């Protein structure tokens, strides 16, 4: 077996993940002053605009003062490229104006309306063409401020991200070396475990064929099968997120008969009778390794928690458009059925196992079109019912 795995930490994922996290945190800290700076620049821009409008009004008033009171002459109202002005009566009716937009207010002072800024100033009564108010308008834009802020913010974020990536990548190198060593260790260990298991099984079968089977060899064979189940769980956990398991057509009847036969010897050591009853012939589209983990872990638990001289019933039947696989034991029952699928949960601390088998089952059914119902009663036993839904069923025929 040759795998490319990382047991503890995927350093690339680690670096990318925490680079973005650190960048986000530090950016928030550094961008807060930038926000204050932008707000300050906007206020300064408003003050500058108000000063400019006052300056324009001063220029207009000065021009009207110079013109004086000459009713027979025409006064040329000052015009400016970026500014519009007008003089109004007391009721704000127009005497003369370049302003086309409706006024946002009729009160003295500086006013804003969208991108327009207005300065309304009360004039001395009837001094300037019987006008009461002088109003000046200018359109303003904060785009340059926002553009400057965006460039600064982008620069800050890019710099932080690059520095975070660089430093975290440097810090992750020791993890990478440790991971590589652990990776090699696990691969070699799994290989070393699998090899003696195979040797034991082959030699027990060979010895039994020559000298006949006996209870001691049956115990050895049963123990190696239990160990093989644990090995297969470990193998699946290691490969789970690193390889893609392909679905294939599976004859569910033949598959279940094979697994029941596999566990028969283990059942015999506890005088447990395991039976398989099916009323339907089914072919499903699923991954064989995943299906094996579901069935093996459920049967293994059923055997483990069954009483001596009891039985286990494996049933396959059709339910409308779905297929139901039921594995029923008559053992101790489960105190907390809702907890049995949690990782490392063990119903009985004195029983062997790591509490990972059923959590593997849960991870598989969660990503598949399979549902699980658990019915259990203390001292009477448990039933695990797996429902294979119609989309994954290729064919089904009542027997």
UniProtKB/TrEMBL annotation:
The chain crosses the membrane at residues 20-38, 145-168. Keywords: Kinase, Membrane, Phosphoprotein, Transferase, Transmembrane, Transmembrane helix, Two-component regulatory system. This is histidine kinase. It comes from the Bacteria. GO terms for cellular component: plasma membrane. Residues 188-392 form the Histidine kinase domain. GO terms for molecular function: phosphoprotein phosphatase activity; phosphorelay sensor kinase activity. Gene3D superfamilies: 1.10.287.130, Histidine kinase-like ATPase, C-terminal domain. InterPro entries: BphY/WalK/GraS-like, HATPase_C_sf, HATPase_dom, His_kinase_dom, HisK_dim/P_dom, HisK_dim/P_sf, Sig_transdc_His_kin-like_C. It comes from Sulfurimonas aquatica. It catalyses: ATP + protein L-histidine = ADP + protein N-phospho-L-histidine. Its EC number is 2.7.13.3. It is an enzyme of class 2 (transferase). GO terms for biological process: cellular response to phosphate starvation.
């Amino acid at each position: 077996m040759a795998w490319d795995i990382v047991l503890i930490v995927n350093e690339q994922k680690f670096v990318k993940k925490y680079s973005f996290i650190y960048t986000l945190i530090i950016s928030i800290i550094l961008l807060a002053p930038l926000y204050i700076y932008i707000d300050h620049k906007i206020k300064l821009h408003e003050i500058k605009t108000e000063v400019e409008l006052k300056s324009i009004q001063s220029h207009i008033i000065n021009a009207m003062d110079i013109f004086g009171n000459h009713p027979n002459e025409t006064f040329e109202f000052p015009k400016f490229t970026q500014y519009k002005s007008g003089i109004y009566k007391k009721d704000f009716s127009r005497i003369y104006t370049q302003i086309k937009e409706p006024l946002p207010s009729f009160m003295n002072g500086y006013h804003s309306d969208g991108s327009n800024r207005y300065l309304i100033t009360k004039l001395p009564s009837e001094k300037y063409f019987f006008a009461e108010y002088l109003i000046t308008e200018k359109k303003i834009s904060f785009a340059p401020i926002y553009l400057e802020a965006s460039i600064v913010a982008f620069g800050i974020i890019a710099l932080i991200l690059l520095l975070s990536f660089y430093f975290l990548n440097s810090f992750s190198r020791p993890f990478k070396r440790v991971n590589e060593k652990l990776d090699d260790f696990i691969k070699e260990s799994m290989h070393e475990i699998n090899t003696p298991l195979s040797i034991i099984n082959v030699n027990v079968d060979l010895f039994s064929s020559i000298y006949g089977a006996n209870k001691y060899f049956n115990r050895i064979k049963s123990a190696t099968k239990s160990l093989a189940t644990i090995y297969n769980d470990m193998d699946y956990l290691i490969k789970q997120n690193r390889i893609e398991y392909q679905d294939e057509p599976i004859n569910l009847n033949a598959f279940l008969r094979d697994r029941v036969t596999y566990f028969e010897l283990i059942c015999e050591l506890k005088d447990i009778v395991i039976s398989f009853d099916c009323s339907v012939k089914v072919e499903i589209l699923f991954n064989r390794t995943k299906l094996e983990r579901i069935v093996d872990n459920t049967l293994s638990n059923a055997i483990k928690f069954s009483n001596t001289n009891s039985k286990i019933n494996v049933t396959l039947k059709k339910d409308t458009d779905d297929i139901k696989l039921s594995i029923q034991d008559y053992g101790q029952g489960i105190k907390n059925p809702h907890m049995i699928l949690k990782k490392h949960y063990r119903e009985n601390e004195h029983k062997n196992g790591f509490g990972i088998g059923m959590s593997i089952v849960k991870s598989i059914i969660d990503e598949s079109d399979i549902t699980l119902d658990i019915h259990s009663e203390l001292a009477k036993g448990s039933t695990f019912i797996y429902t294979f839904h119609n989309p994954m069923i290729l064919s089904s025929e009542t027997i």
